[in-house]
Design brief:
The chain is α+β, with helices and mostly antiparallel strands. It has a 6-stranded mixed β-sheet with strand order 9-10-11-12-13-14. A 4-stranded mixed β-sheet has the order 3-2-1-8. The longest helix has 11 residues. Bound molecules: calcium ion (CA) (2 copies).
């Protein structure tokens, strides 16, 4: 085998593939944060997650929403407002298909989009200042506060998030795509708008180039029957049996929050949330994140772990922490480096 390769090298026959291999790190960097369409196949869409350089299969628009919730970075509403909004060439809000979506107040912002923007779905002029919501947003005014301007754009923040998917954690986790080309945010929180985004932002890619990127894990299935178990002490077996424990045994969608008061050692509260994603070959996948932490760097970052759901949740967690060998996600390096 080695001999064969040497013969090829000597003949210069490998020059072309070698050249493309040598170019691959920069090609990979260029693809970070992009949405790709497999032109030599049936136009399947992929998203290249800039944090790990892996490609994530978007499949259907519904699946795309599930991928976004896996790879997305949580963002507060006040941060989100500092990233300028993207519009269609016509000046309409990106991805809207008026006439095909419910727009109760007829202000050209569909009801669902109003929820993401924080405006009133039943009032075309949410703050009653005689200017309608869309005109205010386009002119840089706050549609919810008469006379107030929208926050000034934070260029550094927008640049840092270029190519990322961000999730409105203070709302319903809606996804926005920060377009690497213009640093603006484009709403992709519904299947219709995810499809519009895949069509608009999708770049054609050959199967050979696509194959150079490692494939990431699949989407998180959206779970309308997610059970919210509220606040519980996860170390207390009796308390856990009320709601989250049985859901974990069967690996059914549920979430639970837990809180630890750090006083009197230091002032502060650690809040942590667990959300069951679904069954995997080697156990039950659970997504978790800090809901409060004195160190803001830990907030809004996800950790995905496989737990042994033949055991109690507390035992399963004890087994996985602190080595986190069955875990991945943005929070992992923060928890394993010290
Ligand atoms: Ca509306
Ligand atoms: Ca108004």
């Amino acid at each position: 085998m080695i001999k064969k390769i040497r013969v090829f090298l000597a003949c210069g026959l490998l020059l072309i593939p070698l050249a493309s291999q040598a170019a691959s790190p920069s090609m990979k960097a260029k693809l970070n944060g992009k949405i790709l369409l497999q032109v030599q196949s049936r136009g399947e869409a992929w998203y290249v997650n800039p944090t790990d350089g892996k490609r994530y299969f978007l499949g259907s628009p519904e699946m795309a929403i599930g991928v976004f919730s896996r790879v997305g970075l949580g963002i507060t509403n006040s941060q989100l407002l500092k990233i300028p909004l993207g519009f269609n060439a016509s000046g309409a809000l990106f991805g809207t298909q008026m006439g095909r979506e419910i727009d109760t107040d007829g202000d050209s912002i569909p009801d669902e989009y109003e929820a993401a923007l924080g405006t009133q779905p039943s009032l075309a002029d949410s703050d009653n200042d005689s200017f309608n919501d869309l005109d205010e947003i386009r002119a840089g005014y706050d549609p919810m506060m008469s006379g107030a301007r929208l926050p000034v754009s934070d260029k550094a923040l927008a640049n840092r998030l270029k190519g990322r998917i961000v999730l409105q954690v203070e709302s319903r986790g809606q996804a926005w795509y920060i377009n690497p080309a213009d640093g603006r945010r484009y709403y992709m929180g519904t299947p219709e708008r995810a499809l519009a985004g895949m069509r608009f932002f999708g770049l054609g890619i050959t199967n050979t180039d696509l194959a150079q990127l490692q494939e990431g894990p699949g989407a998180i299935a959206s779970s309308p029957d997610l059970v919210d178990c509220g606040m519980s002490d996860i170390e207390n077996e009796a308390a856990m049996q009320a709601c989250f424990g049985p859901q974990f045994r069967t690996c059914s969608p549920a979430k639970v929050r837990t809180e630890v008061n750090l006083a009197p050692l230091i002032e502060g509260i650690i809040g942590y949330e667990y959300e069951i994603v679904g069954p995997r070959a080697d156990g039950c996948e659970v997504k978790s994140r800090y809901t409060s932490n004195p160190n803001p760097e830990y907030l809004n970052k996800n950790l995905f772990c496989r737990y042994d759901n033949r055991r109690s949740f507390n035992d399963a967690v004890q087994e996985v922490f602190p080595a986190l060998t069955t875990c991945s996600g943005e929070l992992k390096p923060y928890l394993t480096s010290r």
